[in-house]
Every structure is written in C-alpha cells, then in structure tokens.
Amino acid sequence: MSSSSSALRDLQRDLENKANDLSKLQKDIAKNHQVRKKYTIQLGENELVLKELNLLNEGANVYKLIGPVLVKQDLAEANANVRKRIEYISAELKRLDSTLQDLEGKQNSKKEGILKLQQRIQSLQAGKAKA
Predict the structure, then answer these.
(1) Rounded Cα–Cα distance for residues 68 and 112 (Å)
(2) Number of domain units in the chain
(3) Quick one: pLDDT band at residue 131, thresholds 50, 70, 90?
(4) So what family is this one in (predicted)?
C-alpha cells in the first residue's frame, strides 16, 4: 500500500515539474510572438521607405534623422542601408519562425507526456479505490 502511494507521489511530483516546464515553454512562445510582431512591423515600415526611395530622382535630397538632427544622406547610401535593414529583419523573422516551430514541437511533446502521466495517476488512483 505504501509503495503505491509513494509511486503516486512521485508521479504527481513529476507531473508538477512537467507542468512547470510547459508553462515556461508557453511563456517563451508568447515572447517569440511579441518579438516577431515587432520585427514584422519594422519590416513593413522599411519596405515602405524603400518604395518611397525608389520613387525619387537621382539628384533628390534625402535626409536621415539622427537624434534631433536631420543629416543629409546620399540616395544610393540610403537605399543600400534600407535594403540591408530589410535583409537583417527578414533573417531574424526566419530565425524566429524556426525557433517557434522548435518550441511548439517541444510544447506538444510536453503535453503528450503530461497526458500520459495523468492517465497513469488516474489508473493508480482507481486501483487504490478498488483496494
């Protein structure tokens, strides 16, 4: 009788640990979504800037805001900077997507593990109830 109750306690402790792990994974997934949303907004803004830069003539004046000051910038340089920024943001979004897929896979396996543990606990409790 005591061995089954200690086994039950061990299973419940294991279940609690897995539930905590699942909670951490869910927080990481939420954080990933927040960061991804920020990068998606930045990507849209930079693509809009690139479209505007492409509408300009070769000799047009382009200014970049650095702190409280507008600094004159070469059109080609501004174009290159925005393209590099778009490249970087796109790479970060791909990285975040792969991280998210990994986290979701871990989350699913944790959920399956928790379900199996819950079933084992229920079967142990049902066995104790019969005894």
Answers:
(1) 54
(2) 1
(3) low
(4) Belongs to the prefoldin subunit beta family.
